[in-house]
Amino acid sequence: MSGSERNHNPAGNNRPETLDCCGGLNNVDYSKMDVTLMEELLKHINFHDSSFCVAVIAIIFNPFFWNVVARWEYRTRQLSRLFGNPYLACYALGFMIILLNVYRSHSMTVAMRAQARWEVMDRTDVFYAGIALMVLGTLLVVSSFLALGFTGTFLGDYFGILMDEKVTGFPFNVTENPMYWGSTANYLGLALIGASPVGLLLTAIVAMAYKVAIRFEGPFTEQIYQQRSQRRKHE
């Protein structure tokens, strides 16, 4: 899975408006929610299990790592100097991100296998829902990579490798960050297939980590393309 799992496009990438049904979540009275199911789910999770802790660390570390390294490269060009050109540097970081994400997936799988299954989830319809989510997630991830290419996917714009125009075709006409949400769908599908309550929790942590990453990456990427537009106006 890629580090920069979002559409690296020039400035002007309009974000879809957030749906605001019935005044949004601010109007929800959480005190009236039935938390019995959530409590039951949490009872099946061993928070002191070492494999769970390792998986959480891997989930949080990965986007932190690629954002820190990519911004350092953008400001210093040290990786480009080390590898001789920005393309080789981008490929090196990309392969490192792939290895980190493979380890994240492995650590999550180990945690799911180490902890108990939940009989509520251990049903045929839940199993097939998990398969459907993994098919959808894989479609989003693969189509996103094909649309962006290697450097477009793996933070190439931080290395000065900018895309010529905005990618508007599938899957970016469905969701703005298909690589991130495709990856999340894969993990959710894996949790459902394995009837794994800890898998559900780890997937939620993945989603939160991606949301934080998007908040940092989106504006910074837009700034990069705005600077290019300004340079072109002065040429």
UniProtKB/TrEMBL annotation:
GO terms for biological process: methylation; phosphatidylcholine biosynthetic process. S-adenosyl-L-methionine binds at V135, L136, G137, E217, G218. One of its GO terms (molecular function) is phosphatidyl-N-methylethanolamine N-methyltransferase activity. Its main location: endoplasmic reticulum. It is found in: Endoplasmic reticulum membrane; Mitochondrion membrane. Residues 1-49, 71-82, 152-194 are lumenal. Keywords: Endoplasmic reticulum, Lipid biosynthesis, Lipid metabolism, Membrane, Methyltransferase, Mitochondrion, Phospholipid biosynthesis, Phospholipid metabolism, S-adenosyl-L-methionine, Transferase, Transmembrane, Transmembrane helix. The chain crosses the membrane at residues 47-66, 86-105, 126-150, 187-210. It is a multi-pass membrane protein. Residues 50-70 dip into the membrane without crossing it. It catalyses: 1,2-di-(9Z-octadecenoyl)-sn-glycero-3-phospho-N,N-dimethylethanolamine + S-adenosyl-L-methionine = 1,2-di-(9Z-octadecenoyl)-sn-glycero-3-phosphocholine + S-adenosyl-L-homocysteine + H(+); 1,2-di-(9Z,12Z-octadecadienoyl)-sn-glycero-3-phosphoethanolamine + S-adenosyl-L-methionine = 1,2-di-(9Z,12Z-octadecadienoyl)-sn-glycero-3-phospho-N-methylethanolamine + S-adenosyl-L-homocysteine + H(+); 1,2-di-(9Z,12Z,15Z-octadecatrienoyl)-sn-glycero-3-phospho-N,N-dimethylethanolamine + S-adenosyl-L-methionine = 1,2-di-(9Z,12Z,15Z-octadecatrienoyl)-sn-glycero-3-phosphocholine + S-adenosyl-L-homocysteine + H(+); 1,2-di-(9Z,12Z-octadecadienoyl)-sn-glycero-3-phospho-N-methylethanolamine + S-adenosyl-L-methionine = 1,2-di-(9Z,12Z-octadecadienoyl)-sn-glycero-3-phospho-N,N-dimethylethanolamine + S-adenosyl-L-homocysteine + H(+). It is an enzyme of class 2 (transferase). Its EC number is 2.1.1.17, 2.1.1.71. Pathway: Lipid metabolism; Phospholipid metabolism; phosphatidylcholine biosynthesis. Residues 104-130, 216-235 are cytoplasmic. One of its GO terms (cellular component) is endoplasmic reticulum membrane. InterPro entries: PEMT/MFAP, Phopholipid_MeTrfase. Catalyzes the three sequential steps of the methylation pathway for the biosynthesis of phosphatidylcholine, a critical and essential component for membrane structure. Belongs to the class VI-like SAM-binding methyltransferase superfamily. PEMT/PEM2 methyltransferase family. This is Phosphatidylethanolamine N-methyltransferase. The gene is PEMT.
